[in-house]
């Protein structure tokens, strides 16, 4: 039982590493925190691609390389749910893992549009560079639902935890469900070039992205403590393997 | 049915209904006076508290949610009243 | 009020023990959600302050009578759902089912009136792209409508459970939490209505 928890801590570290890489390389180097407001002239976008091409190439290459860490982090969470909370039904952990894995897709694919713009910007028109920048943002924002699936599945699974002190506190389960739910405001994003719903707007950029960033931080904190607790539960189950009562304990001990 | 009217949620509902009808009368006029609009905002605040306290049952004083509700009502009312007064004065 | 399937003993000891109606986690969700709406209200008022004439002119295209009607619908639905919670605590299965059904029926009126209202606006060529006021109008009422739809589904689950499950402590927490969410839908409308329809700039 301890054996199957073996790599989880390494996977859990992928979350914070992803977050740092995403903020530094995608966000700061890629001029995406905050993005250009959609109503700036195409020339501004074109000039940006031409003057900062190398910075964008570096930022997006790194972001593309490291985005898959989000999936690995999600896998750790899925396994904690599967081993620690679920019994005969692994649908929620499966949804959580798939949601995390699919979240990688819009992020990674949108990075290639920025990269394509920065590849030979001197040969491309302003309007084409603007199109690439817009396409990238439309994809990364409108792919929200795969992440919503992950967040809601995780939230529901955490709420199903029947321990006296649950692995992940209820407020955090609900926080994730709420953030996943609130992402729906992105459906207004394609309609606006300024204001709160635009890609750079108060709600659809500042609020939604940072709610998600904070969620990653909170979940990671409890992910480490959950792994530790599952290890302790597994060790406890092994030590008491001779006493018949021990086997009736919590879910972890169910199938050794 | 008589006992129905003794329940706190029923009293709250009657008060909320009456408050809403009062607002309906206040907006009969196409260009309500500033005082009428201020009254509408304050009536809304009163209604918010009734819902929190008697429908959502925070009158029991469950903390910290009661505090959250009171602060929320105060902040929302201040935002709307303040925003209104800036444009109406 | 007594019926053959009443179980007054079901949770007699229950009501006195807890202070909060509903689950703490749901209250966290509600607090987060209303905070986000409060931010949206603030953003609306800021934009309104920048263009009071435009907002006033656009506001006059809205029909406050529909707003009053929707307010009365949601208040009544909320009240019926509050009565369902009260009945659940008394273990009165038939009353829970009756009040929930009535609450949903009255609540459905909100959807009808809202769709009629949207229909009229769109038929008159007004969309969320018309101007900043209508962006807020459609987005805020649209997000609220989404909450309304979720609320109706949550109530439907409570109704189904009221027929199949025991009306025990677990069910009471369920229905209390669902009802609090439903009251939040009501609550948000109580702000949206005056803010969007009634703030007259002289």
Summarize the structure.
The complex is a heterotrimer of chains A (about 260), B (about 90) and C (about 200). By secondary structure, chain A is an all-alpha fold.
Structural account:
The complex is a heterotrimer of chains A (256), B (89) and C (202). Chain A has 256 residues and is mainly alpha-helical. Chain A contains nine helices and no strands. Chain A has one domain (3-226). Chain A starts with 7 loop residues before the first helix and ends in a 17-residue tail after the last helix. By secondary structure, chain B is mainly α. Chain B contains three helices and no strands. The model of chain B has no long low-confidence stretch (mean pLDDT 91). The radius of gyration of chain C is 19 Å and the shape is elongated. By secondary structure, chain C is mainly alpha-helical. Chain C starts with 23 loop residues before the first helix and ends with a helix. Classes of the chains: A mainly alpha (256), B mainly alpha (89), C mainly alpha (202). Chains in contact: A-C, B-C. The A-C interface holds A 159, 170-171, 173-175, 177-178, 182, 184-185, 188, 191-192, 195-197, 202-203, 207 and C 23-26, 28-29, 32-33, 36, 39-40, 43, 47, 128-129, 132, 135, 139, 142-143, 146.
